[in-house]
Amino acid sequence: TDHFTYDPGFTSTGSCESKISFIDGDKGILQHRGYSIEDLAENCDFMEVAYLLLKGELPNIDEKAKFETDITMHTMVHEQLHKFYDGFRRDAHPMAIMVGVVGALSAFYHDSLDINDPHQRMVASYRLIAKMPTIAAWAYKYSVGQPFMYPRNDMRYAEDFLHMMFAVPCEDYKVNPVLAKAMDRILILHADHEQNASTSTVRLAGSSGANPFACIAAGIASLWGPAHGGANEAVLNMLTEIGTPDRVGEFVAKAKDKNDPFRLMGFGHRVYKNFDPRAKIMAKTCHEVLGELGIKDEPLLEIAMQLEKIALEDDYFIEKKLYPNVDFYSGIILKAMGIPTSMFTVLFALARTTGWIAQWNEMIEDPSQRIGRPRQLYTGEVDRDFVPLHQR
Ligand code: CMC
């Protein structure tokens, strides 16, 4: 018989070597290529972080300018891709559209793509990073029945995305710089997070040599679930359902009840057992953005703060080491920016695409790379006597 370790949920299995992201879950540390997430979120913009993840170093001024030009060259999508949107019901969830449309990109870039050529891999990576805001904004435009806005290469990455989301052809629209900055920060905080479910999915799909655009679509599918990226949407729905701060206790009690499957969305993490450093930056950003937008007394923020306070003092959450995670505060900022709840996870996908594609490149370059092929513990029947159909 074969010998292997049985490890459901891969809680103690390292699947690869990586130089991209480092997490110390006990100390609440996250670093990308050795730089702390705090330093990156405070001092860099998303394009610099994307460059860092992909290439291993922070860019200098010239490298950054060239990178941004290279990315903007690819922001448009093939005109035929419009037609894919028309195939979806108008009320389709935008994540469903993302899985379909990003997967469809593989049909536009397949035959000519040699994944063993580093240059071609880099072009595919640029294409993905560049086209995601366009594809994501169009998923939203489709749902509200407005014309698609083309990307604007005179705008920065986050600004361009917000422009494609909210501008309409019949009037001038200027993106609020406070919102563009906040969006950029949210993208940085979601850019990469070592071997989480969606990144592992991208690596596993890619380990067979599959088309990278199709692999990213697989990552988007994995991200969609409420235990992963779908949590940001679920948090806002939960806060809305709680409704008033005095009902927080009731929901905390529900979350603790063993017989109730309800969990506090935006709480807990497989690796962080002290705090999620991204959540701290997100909470701070949330207060800043609401302040700068002049939004006072946001009821959802009050409920969130109350929830955090009660949960952090509660024995159940202390014992199980459950703390707010990155998704806990992001939804409140996104809502304040006018982003509809159903788009929250799409934004996560947009940001994480840089991490996914950096990890995919690292995997393809790794000489020890083999097809991912977990084993199983078979618990079914064996050696049964076959009974012909008419005798069963
Ligand atoms: N509320 C109440 N109880 C919880 C929660 C929660 N949010 N999270 C975990 N627990 C309990 C769980 O019931 C279990 O209790 P017991 O040991 O008595 O069975 C214990 O804590 C350990 O939970 P687990 O499910 O075994 O832990 P995991 O590492 O498999 O899951 C998690 C991690 C993030 C999926 C989980 O904490 C969760 O479902 N959280 C809510 C969803 C969420 O916010 N997800 C976003 C994660 S961070 C960003 C991202 O990846 O997108």
Automatic annotation (TrEMBL):
In Pfam terms, one family for this protein is: Citrate_synt
Entry keyword annotation includes ATP-binding? no
A GO biological process of this protein is: tricarboxylic acid cycle
Q: Which reaction does it catalyse?
A: oxaloacetate + acetyl-CoA + H2O = citrate + CoA + H(+)
Sorted alphabetically, which Gene3D superfamilies does this protein's record hold? Answer: 2.20.28.60, Citrate Synthase, domain 1, Cytochrome P450-Terp, domain 2
Keyword line: Transferase, Tricarboxylic acid cycle
One GO cellular component term: cytoplasm
Q: Which domain of life is it from?
A: Bacteria
Q: Enumerate the InterPro entries for this protein.
A: Citrate_synth-like_lrg_a-sub, Citrate_synth-like_sm_a-sub, Citrate_synthase, Citrate_synthase_AS, Citrate_synthase_bac-typ, Citrate_synthase_sf, Citrate_synthase_typ-I
Example of a GO MF term: citrate synthase activity
Show the active-site residues.
Answer: 269, 327
Q: In which pathway does it act?
A: Carbohydrate metabolism; tricarboxylic acid cycle; isocitrate from oxaloacetate: step 1/2
Similarity remark: Belongs to the citrate synthase family.
According to UniProt, the name of this protein is Citrate synthase
Q: Which organism is it from?
A: Terasakiella brassicae
